[in-house]
Q: What sequence folds into this?
């Protein structure tokens, strides 16, 4: 039972990363590789702050701030420096690796008895694994609400339009460069926050914890979409979180099948590749029709 | 005396400067648009029509020369800044609308053309009646599709929407870049009729690029022919009415 609770908890916390990635991958419509640097950066900043006796709330806020910063740098390289987004993200991600080593002082720093967001008594009193579920739910609820209200404002609509049709957006007087920078900042802010929360939950930060995070974030988005199909924007945000939890379940099943955690990255990549190809399968092999035929009585 | 809406002074544009491909497109071009002018702009491919439009809308800055809007120098303002004064309908129906946003959402975006957009709730539902009215007279049933994604509309509907979006806020200057060229003859004719009606009802100043000589003769009060980067014909009013196809074709053969 506790394995499932812990999977749900992890699903929520990683879901925040999925929400961040959704803003760039789905709304601005480009892949932002910064993620793989931002996630460990948020974790490193948070853990370093905690080990220096900083209040857990402040440390968590700092991990969000760290993400804002990396998003800003990628955004400036992309819009003002005219570097293609993929390369801009990879440059920032690569650079941050050294910064993370500087911040942590070594490759891996564990939290010993430092207070974290998970320390308060009422959370510790809960059965095993429920602390992360509770905190994860609170955070995702607040974030989904804030993001969906933001997208419904004038500036939020301008942000959506930028990703949807840049030429039109410019012709309507929307500063598309600023929208892209804003989107990258908020997106990476959420990813940094996710890194900070997961580091507190796992009890350590590692400079290599960013590897493969973009695949995990995309998996949350794509699984949510495959599971739900056409939805309103707010519902799509919720679907990302649900997708993130479903993805954890898939990993659980894979583990039960006898694979080791070492195989996670390969399996993650395969799962995502299959999910990304589902629209193709639907067209090419008419899966739905075949399935229906299978159920029909002869 | 009122200032002209737009003045172009000694505009030169050269592309690929410093390479073997260097080419002068617009050559010492001067043009003045008075309020209410409805110009049909003709010219062969490569004459510089699109370049001229891009210099006006700010997406291309001229190599030399000045652009004045209502007497104000706007040469250094980019396309985003000029959106306050200038609206454009592109040739490609896909260019003028956001496909994953609904018709109403597109209209709401356009109703704030060139305005500051802040963290205020957009209030889409408050505007629905207004959009219903704005689309009611249109030929192709847009008023029933306000909640449809623009990407699922037909080409004609999308282009009608683009046109409505461009004229919603009464721009100082409306640019039409062969906006009916991608449509079938019937739809094209409908949109041209709508264009004429809206431009004259709202007393808009408009530059329309077209390859349809018939349209160029039928619509507008002024015709300009561009050839190899220079204005070779600029007629207005009575003289424009006297113009015929044969005469126009002579300028094309030069």
A:
């Amino acid at each position: 039972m506790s394995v499932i609770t812990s999977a749900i908890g992890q699903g929520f916390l990683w879901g925040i990363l999925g929400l961040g990635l959704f803003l760039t991958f789905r709304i601005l419509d480009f892949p932002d590789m910064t993620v793989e640097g931002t996630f460990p950066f948020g974790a490193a900043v948070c853990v370093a702050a905690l080990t220096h006796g900083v209040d857990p709330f402040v440390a968590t806020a700092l991990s969000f701030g760290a993400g804002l910063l990396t998003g800003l740098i990628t955004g400036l390289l992309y819009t003002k420096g005219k570097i293609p987004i993929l390369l801009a993200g990879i440059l920032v991600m690569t650079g941050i690796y050294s910064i993370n080593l500087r911040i942590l002082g070594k490759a891996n720093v564990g939290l010993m008895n430092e207070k974290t967001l998970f320390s308060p008594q009422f959370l510790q009193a809960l059965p095993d694994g429920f602390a992360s579920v509770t905190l994860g739910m609170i955070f995702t609820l607040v974030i989904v609400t804030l993001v969906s209200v933001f997208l419904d404002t004038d500036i939020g609509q301008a942000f959506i339009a930028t990703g949807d049709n840049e030429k039109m957006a410019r012709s309507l007087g929307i500063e598309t460069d600023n929208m892209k920078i804003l989107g990258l900042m908020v997106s990476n802010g959420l990813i940094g926050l996710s890194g900070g929360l997961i580091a507190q939950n796992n009890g350590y930060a590692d400079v290599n914890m960013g590897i493969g995070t973009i695949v995990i974030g995309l998996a949350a988005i794509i699984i949510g979409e495959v599971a739900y199909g056409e939805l309103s924007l707010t519902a799509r945000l919720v679907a990302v979180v649900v997708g993130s939890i479903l993805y954890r379940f898939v990993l659980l099943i894979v583990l039960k099948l006898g694979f080791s955690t070492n195989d996670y990255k390969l399996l993650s990549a395969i799962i995502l590749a299959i999910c990304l190809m589902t629209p193709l399968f639907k067209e090419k092999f008419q899966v739905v029709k075949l399935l229906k035929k299978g159920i029909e009585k002869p | 005396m009122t200032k002209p809406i737009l003045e172009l002074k000694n505009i030169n544009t050269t592309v690929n400067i410093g390479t073997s491909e260097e080419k002068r497109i617009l050559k010492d071009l001067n043009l003045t648009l008075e309020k209410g002018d409805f110009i049909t702009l003709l010219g062969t491919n490569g004459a510089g029509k699109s370049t001229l439009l891009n210099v006006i809308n700010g997406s291309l800055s001229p190599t030399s020369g000045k652009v004045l809007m209502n007497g104000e120098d706007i040469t250094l303002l980019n396309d985003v800044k000029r959106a306050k004064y200038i609206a454009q309908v592109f040739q490609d129906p896909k260019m003028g609308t956001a496909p994953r946003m609904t018709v109403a959402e597109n209209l709401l975006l356009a109703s704030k053309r060139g305005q500051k957009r802040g963290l205020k709730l957009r209030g889409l539902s408050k505007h629905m009646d207004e959009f219903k009215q704005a689309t009611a007279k249109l030929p192709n049933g847009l008023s029933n599709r306000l909640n449809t994604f623009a990407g699922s509309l037909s080409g004609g509907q999308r282009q009608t929407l683009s046109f409505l979006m461009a004229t919603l806020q009464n721009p100082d200057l409306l640019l039409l870049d062969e906006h009916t060229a991608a449509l079938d003859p019937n739809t094209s004719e409908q949109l041209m009729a709508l264009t004429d009606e809206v431009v004259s009802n709202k007393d808009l100043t408009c530059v329309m690029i077209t390859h349809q000589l018939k349209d160029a003769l039928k619509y507008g009060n002024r015709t300009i022919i561009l050839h190899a980067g220079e204005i070779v014909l600029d007629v207005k009013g009575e003289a424009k009415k006297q113009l015929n196809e044969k005469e126009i074709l002579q300028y094309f053969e030069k």
